[in-house]
Amino acid sequence: MKASYLETISLVERLHRQCLEVVKSELDRMGVRDLNNVQALILFNIGDEELTVGELTQRGYYLGSNVSYNVKKMVENGYLIQERSLHDRRSFHVRASETGLKICQALGQLFDQHAENGLQSAQLSDEVLRSANEALSRLQQFWSVPGQYSSRISPAA
């Protein structure tokens, strides 16, 4: 069981990095140089919604990066529009600009192509993906309670 668990952790990490490389390749193909792959995925996850920076963080759209820095850069480069909240002057809302929406659409088309063509050639059926998603969701729930299953063994002095 431990070997399978460690393999899953390693595979999730590698898949995440490879997904970022796929996004980077698409950005390169499009000639986009002022947006990195993490920022592009944040943008894709925002889509046509308007969110606060806190909501981006809660939803996990930051993908392990500094969300405030990435939002700042995307605003500076014209991919996001940032406005102060009317109800809470301490928070800001962000939404994709027209340029940002074009990136969202391009990534959406890329993922559509993967779902329609590529996954079939890799023998990944909807059923297989649903099963993988279910297992990964359970792992996410397991990890979502920090310390719940931590070891009772104290570190060496």
UniProtKB/TrEMBL annotation:
The keyword Kinase does not apply. It comes from Denitrobaculum tricleocarpae. Residues 2-141 form the HTH marR-type domain. The keyword Coiled coil does not apply. One of its GO terms (biological process) is response to stress. One of its GO terms (molecular function) is DNA-binding transcription factor activity. This is MarR family transcriptional regulator. Keywords: DNA-binding, Transcription, Transcription regulation.
